[in-house]
Specification:
alpha+beta; 3-stranded antiparallel beta sheet; Bacteriocin As-48, Chain A; 32% helix
Length: 114
């Protein structure tokens, strides 16, 4: 008997398909370089938020991949996707992984050029 929050282990749970994040806007316009720096800082510190490093590595690979490859990475790593845009995921041990939208897609107010 499992706890009331446990999920079925017999495979009858539907697999949540990964989708692109909805368009979002940063609090102020950012350049591509600033966005890259924000992403690098997040991924450098992500393992300190808890969870397992190999899951963080898989999530980073999935965030950088196209949707089909991202789905394969997530499925192979045993990541449980709560939100289809990958903003909230869990590993098989129940550790929670929260990804900010800026590591998953570009903001609508991204400054391009110069």
């Amino acid at each position: 008997m499992g706890c009331s929050g446990s999920t079925s282990a017999n495979g009858d749970e539907p697999i949540k398909k990964i989708t692109k994040p909805k368009p979002w806007k940063h609090s102020e316009p950012v350049t591509g370089e600033q966005l890259k720096q924000m992403r690098d800082e997040f991924w450098d510190t992500a393992p300190h938020y808890g969870g397992r490093k190999e899951i963080w590595d898989a999530l980073r690979a999935a965030a950088d991949a196209d949707l089909s490859l991202a789905q394969t990475i997530v499925d192979s790593a045993g990541i449980i996707v709560q939100k289809a845009d990958l903003t909230i995921c869990y590993d098989e041990r129940g550790a929670k992984y929260e990804l900010p939208k800026y590591v998953l897609s570009e903001p609508t107010n991204l400054v391009r050029g110069s």
